[in-house]
Design a protein that fits this description.
Elements (H helix, E strand, L loop, with lengths): L16 H11 L4 E5 L6 H16 L2 E6 L8 H10 L3 H11 L9 H30 L1 E6 L5 H14 L4 E6 L8 E5 L6 E3 L2 E2 L1 H10 L4 H10 L4 H9 L6 H11 L16 H11 L2 H10 L8 H8 L6 H13 L4 E4 L15 E3 L2 H13 L3 H23 L4 H10 L1 H9 L5 H13 L1 H5 L4 H14 L5 H16 L3 H17 L3 H17 L3 H13 L10 H13 L4 H13 L7 H17 L3 H16 L4 H20 L47
Parallel strand pairs: 1-4, 1-5, 2-3, 3-4
Antiparallel strand pairs: 6-7, 8-9
Helix pairs in contact: 1-2, 3-5, 4-5, 5-6, 7-8, 7-9, 8-10, 12-14, 12-15, 13-14, 13-16, 16-17, 16-18, 16-19, 18-19, 19-21, 19-22, 21-22, 22-23, 22-24, 23-24, 24-25, 24-26, 25-26, 26-27, 26-28, 27-28, 28-29, 29-30
Length: 692
């Protein structure tokens, strides 16, 4: 049988088969099993279900004490004694046996010392009697929700296990007790799906509450609730006043923080109450860090957390320690452990954390109430500007994949920093700085349309005539040229030229010449293209980190010369590669190889063209660019057809990775046009974010 303190029946458990089996197995051998997890994840429900089954098999009983909702005077020990039904006479005998003369008066200091000793001895005797009583009855102790008395709980558990090695204890808490004999089972939110088209336990739990419903709506609700059992239960209770489609729409926009409903404890009546209970147990520093982390939409490392959280009342040195305390309290999730190695370099990586949706909404509410939201958002955008600048420098460094990885690791944050409405003109400039620093992502990695959208919107918000705005005008003009929006590109380049002249920006004028060369190639005006690209390639850049630079202009010059003069084209390609910043410049390397492939093809060397084109494609795949990859594949297809037909391709091809035109002798569809054969709608290189 089971003797629960609240006499309520054990709950039904959905989707916890793995955890259920693991806890059941541990109960057969471990003396102390602790279930940890975030607020509302279902630790108590799982513990009670497992214990009910376990005690039924072993003809035992369960003695439960709930620690969070208040205990009578006497603390945890007396609460357990009462729940166990230990007779009052046994407690009195235990105390008298421990110190029979504890009530005799002793004068002076000796009296106080003897009294304290007597009290400790009596307490030990009560603990020993309680442990013996539980073992004799075959009882398992369940200390439920121990967070508010965690230290007292750890001390009592240690004393109970020392008194009776055969005693079994189960603890539920948001953080572990930290005892050597403790076996910890982490209870995570329920998976929403188990694969493509396979509903997970979270959907099963919601379906059990809603009855038959459209699977896509159930999945949408559960994804918004991040598989939290408490959130799912509370959301299901809202179906008394709204339909499932309405619930899916509301959860997706407003979040479930304030949904409420009947619950066995006050803190489970809403997600807000559940998080508020844990928030109350945090130190003032941890509360501030929790609230400020709520402006981060994705997973983050200690550096970004420090940028957002550090202020006069939270020293920088305290932030990292606070992150670990919040992780141990199941507020933060660990995405990557400290010391994990990068897959390509083996370098040690910093830890990464994630604030789940419910905790993030709660923290954001606290941040607003404290009047700190605007300052935290400003620090967040400034940190993202620093991240984008770091990625821009890494792009011109020895390994461009590091820049790609950095941007993809921080994609959620960069997207938020670019799209959240700026608070003022200074904040708008910070957002524009991010968009400009990410020029390589937009122009070289294939995200042209996304970049144009961000830049166009932010330029409208940043009207002041600054050097940064001049760069943004040039960049959006370049992207427009790559997308074959020729008239728009010309207009933007005219504005960029005026701004560059005003700011005496010689680098900007060279970059404008580069784009005019690209536009000339689009129009198949090779002589103008060569003239513009020669001007850009001759320039000595003052800022080597921003834009294509002279080396890339030289590679584009080789592309323009490919059908005119093989020797000049090869010489331009060699000069471009010699002017590189590093051997890891895959973008430049692929462009030089592409120019070589065009040159060899145009001058009757299909085998050499095929080899160069394959190398160019392999290099470009490392950083991605669907337009370039489609063009290279079209050339490969043409060369292979020529090989099958027994004849190589003759002169007449022009094309380029900047989006300029390409035409084979068989009049293939130009790959740079929208909808052309080989064009792809999404970037080729989209790495799944696994935390590495």
């Amino acid at each position: 049988m089971s003797a629960w303190a609240d006499d309520s029946p054990p709950p039904d458990v959905v989707g916890r088969a793995v955890e259920h089996e693991r806890v059941s197995g541990l109960l057969d051998s471990a003396r102390l099993v602790t279930l940890t997890g975030a607020a509302g994840v279902g630790k108590s429900v799982l513990a009670r279900a497992v214990l009910d089954e376990h005690t039924a098999r072993h003809d035992g009983t369960v003695i439960r004490v709930g620690c969070w909702d208040g205990m009578a005077e006497g603390g945890l020990t007396d609460a357990l004694v009462r729940a166990a039904g230990l007779p009052d006479t046994a407690r009195v005998i235990a105390r008298r046996t421990a110190h029979p003369c504890a009530t005799d008066p002793v004068p002076g200091q000796a009296a106080a010392t003897t009294g304290a000793f007597a009290q400790r001895t009596a307490d030990e005797a009560v603990v020993a009697a309680l442990a013996a009583h539980c073992v004799e009855r075959g009882a398992t102790l369940l200390l439920d929700d121990c967070d508010p008395v965690l230290e007292e709980c750890a001390r009592l558990v240690r004393r109970l296990l020392e008194a009776e090695p055969d005693l079994r204890i189960v603890v539920t808490t948001r953080r572990r007790l930290g005892l050597g004999t403790e076996q910890v089972v982490a209870v995570a939110p329920l998976p929403v799906t188990l694969g493509e088209g396979i509903a997970g336990p979270a959907v099963e739990l919601l379906a059990a509450r809603t009855g038959p419903a459209a699977p896509e709506l159930l999945v949408a609700v559960c994804e918004s609730l991040e598989g939290s059992p408490l959130a799912i239960e509370l959301a299901a209770q809202q179906l008394d006043r709204m339909s499932l489609p309405q619930l899916a729409a509301q959860v997706g926009t407003d979040g479930p923080l304030f949904y409420s409903g009947p619950a066995p404890t006050v803190r489970h009546t809403s997600l807000y109450a559940a998080h508020a209970a844990g928030y109350a147990l945090c130190s003032p520093t941890d509360r501030r860090v929790w609230a400020r982390l709520s402006v981060l939409p994705g997973d983050f490392d200690p550096w970004l957390a420090g940028c957002v959280c550090t202020s006069s009342d939270v020293p920088a040195a305290e932030v990292e320690a606070s992150l670990e305390r919040l992780r141990l309290a199941s507020v933060l999730e660990s995405v990557r452990e400290c010391g994990a190695e990068a897959p390509d370099t083996g370098a040690a990586l910093p830890p990464r954390y994630r604030l789940p949706g419910g905790a993030r909404e709660f923290g954001r509410t606290q941040l607003r109430e404290a009047g700190e939201e605007a300052a935290a958002l400003r620090r967040f955008r400034q940190a993202c500007a620093a991240l984008a600048a770091e990625a821009q420098v890494a792009w011109q460094g020895p390994n461009q994949q590091l820049a790609v990885r950095l941007v993809e690791d921080e994609q959620h944050h960069l997207d938020a920093a670019l799209t959240r409405p700026p608070q003022d003109a200074e904040d708008a400039l910070s957002a524009l700085e991010i968009a400009v620093s990410l020029w390589f992502r937009w122009a070289a990695c294939g995200f042209r349309r996304e970049g144009r959208a961000h830049l166009g919107r932010l330029l409208l918000l940043s009207r002041e005539d600054t050097a940064l705005r001049a760069r943004a005008l040039w960049l959006v003009g370049w992207l427009a040229a790559q997308e074959h929006a020729l008239d728009t590109a010309e207009e933007l380049l005219d504005q960029a030229w005026t701004a560059a002249v005003i700011h005496a920006d010689s680098d900007g004028l060279a970059r404008i010449a580069h784009v005019h060369g690209v536009l000339a190639l689009y129009r198949e005006d090779v002589s103008t293209a060569v003239e513009c690209l020669e001007e850009a390639a001759r320039h000595r850049s003052k800022d080597p980190w921003f834009g294509p630079g002279p080396a890339h202009s030289g590679a584009m010059l080789a592309v323009a010369l490919s059908s005119l003069d093989a020797e000049r084209a090869k010489a331009a390609g060699r000069r471009a590669w010699e002017a590189r910043h590093s051997d890891g410049d895959f973008w430049l390397y692929s462009t030089v190889l592409y120019a070589q492939a065009l040159t060899e093809r145009a001058h009757g060397q299909p085998a050499a063209a095929l080899r160069a084109c394959r190398k160019a494609l392999a290099a470009k795949k490392l950083i991605g660019d669907p337009l370039f990859i489609a063009g290279a594949r079209n050339i490969l297809a043409g060369l292979r057809r020529g090989a099958r037909d027994g004849a190589g391709e003759g002169p007449g091809g022009r094309g380029g990775p900047d989006g300029q035109g390409g035409r084979a002798v068989d009049e293939e569809v130009r790959w740079w046009r929208r909808g052309a054969r080989g064009a792809r709608g999404a970037p080729f290189f989209t790495r799944v974010r696994t935390g590495s």
